[in-house]
Design goal:
The chain is α/β, with parallel strands linked by helices. It has 5 helices and 12 strands. It folds into 2 domains: 150 residues, Double Stranded RNA Binding Domain, CATH 3.30.160; 116 residues, Rossmann fold.
Length: 291
Amino acid sequence: MKHFLLLLLPLALASCGTLPQPFYGNPGSPEAAKLSEPPAPVLMVPTPKTALLDDKSAGLYAHDLAAALAAADVPSVAGVAVKGEWQVGISAAVNGNNVEPAYAVIGPDGKTYGHQAGALVPAAGWSNGDAATLTTAATTDATTLAKLMTSINAQVQQSNPDSLENRVPRIFIGTVTGAPGDGDVSLPLNLARDLPGPDLALAKAADQADFIVTGTITTKPAPQAQLQVELDWVVRDRNNRVAGQVSQIHDLNPGDITPYWGDVAAAAASEAAQGISTVVQNEILKKPKGR
């Protein structure tokens, strides 16, 4: 028996059930499909103005903190925050022979969502902008700031009735292009039948969706007068970041897909739906709360 080779990294899905011809036999040459990790919304780290540092040292500390936060799995960039971005405000106060940094996490709406006191830093090293002192302080405080961000994100999501924590994700089936015959029409129609389920709902429009899936079909000559047909399904989130890709590859007779895909489209869509659903669920599970 043969089936359309479905590739989903790091997960490889085998076909299930009985598939119609021409999905029986040996699959075409496999080509690895990549499951991409989308970048999460970035936390901006502006150069502090009230951190008891000169301008140069303040800029260095912003870069140190952004790098340390990124290493702690909080995507961060040193730079000026614009409206609609999360940011961390940095200040500092003298505490005896030490300086105590302080941080405020500010949301896209301009509200402060949390405060965090930093570890005490020797005043001399801090005020002199000693590179090692600043790097150590940033690395130390990034750990507690990352935990604060996790807590804030969870609270935001739990209080939002439209959050994916509180409802089934919605997916919109976008365009399918490149298919011979009627594949650009029959494939999305079949996918619309197979994708909905208890863990995934169809959206009627892209702006109503949490995820959008599009398909690209390519063909090239294969041995014995066949065509190697590759279907690449890309899943993007509402910010157009790639959540993952599912690829299907098979050698087919040209007559199997021209002028009509028929049962081939039904079988391909059935298998693709499994991989696409897995991409969506994996993305929801691995994505830090609130990002």
